[in-house]
């Protein structure tokens, strides 16, 4: 994507009521005004809040929001030029149950209050295979502790990935730490049992993986 195109998207994001782009300073100084107030201030209802971490173009968030109008969805990504597409689609389609925040995932406890989130989706994260990159792996122990803080006591997490490594690593960690695995499948398009939103909503990159017959894996779990 050219720099002109990126600038254009950043500018357009500023006009969308469903996009929030706080500075890092605002976030870490706890000046993000929607923390703890997503339901009352933005969505103006008491519906469950589901977030997608590393939402990319926002296809999953928008797809889930269209499927479940009785739930609220928030996509998180540091690249605003990417989720511009999802935000624009939501605006054009008059969807009021989806929003996007441009921030780093490790700062989500500054974006949401304790027990504010009902469910988390992690879709096609970078597996960070090299050992020295494990601290950036989105299902490592530190990240799980972070998610637990913002999730309600019975909150659920979903990991959907094309990486067998990420799938295996996460399953091993979950079992090793005694978390509750509700469902796990190493190829959701070949085996039955996955819920409809796992197979019927697909991202841009997921479609590319499926075209070359790459297996898509999925885990649904709770943090103990």
Within CATH, the superfamily of the largest domain carries the name: Vaccinia Virus protein VP39
What is the SS-derived class? alpha/beta
The N- to C-terminal Cα distance equals 42 Å
Name of the CATH first level of the largest domain: Alpha Beta
Specify the CATH architecture of the largest domain: 3-Layer(aba) Sandwich
Order of helices and strands: HEHHEHEHEHEHEHEHHE
Q: What topology, given as strand order, has the largest sheet? A: 1-4-3-2-5-6-8-7
Structural features, described:
With 224 residues, this protein is an alpha/beta fold. The model has no long low-confidence stretch (mean pLDDT 93). It folds into 2 domains: 108 residues, Rossmann fold (3-Layer(aba) Sandwich), CATH 3.40.50.150; 111 residues, Vaccinia Virus protein VP39 (Rossmann fold, 3-Layer(aba) Sandwich). The protein has 10 helices and 8 strands. Strands 1-4-3-2-5-6-8-7 form an 8-stranded mixed beta sheet, sandwiched between helices.
């Amino acid at each position: 994507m050219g720099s002109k195109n990126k600038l254009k998207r950043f500018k357009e994001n500023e006009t969308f009521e469903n996009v929030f782009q706080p500075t890092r300073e605002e976030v870490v100084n706890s000046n993000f005004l929607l923390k703890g107030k997503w339901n009352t201030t933005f969505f103006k209802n008491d519906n469950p809040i589901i977030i997608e971490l590393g939402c990319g173009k926002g296809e999953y968030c928008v797809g889930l929001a269209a499927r479940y109008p009785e739930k609220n969805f928030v996509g998180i990504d540091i690249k605003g030029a990417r989720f511009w597409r999802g935000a624009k689609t939501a605006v054009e389609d008059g969807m009021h149950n989806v929003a996007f925040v441009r921030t780093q995932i490790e700062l989500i406890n500054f974006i949401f209050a304790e027990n504010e989130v009902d469910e988390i989706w992690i879709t096609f994260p970078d597996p960070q295979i090299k050992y020295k990159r494990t601290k950036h792996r989105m299902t490592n122990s530190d990240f799980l502790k972070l998610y637990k803080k913002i999730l309600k006591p019975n909150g659920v997490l979903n990991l959907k990935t094309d990486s067998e490594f990420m799938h295996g690593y996460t399953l091993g960690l979950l079992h090793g730490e005694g978390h509750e695995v509700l469902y796990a499948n190493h190829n959701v398009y070949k085996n039955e049992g996955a819920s409809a939103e796992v197979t019927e909503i697909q991202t841009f990159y997921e479609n590319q993986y499926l075209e070359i017959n790459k297996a898509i894996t999925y885990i649904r779990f709770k943090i103990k």
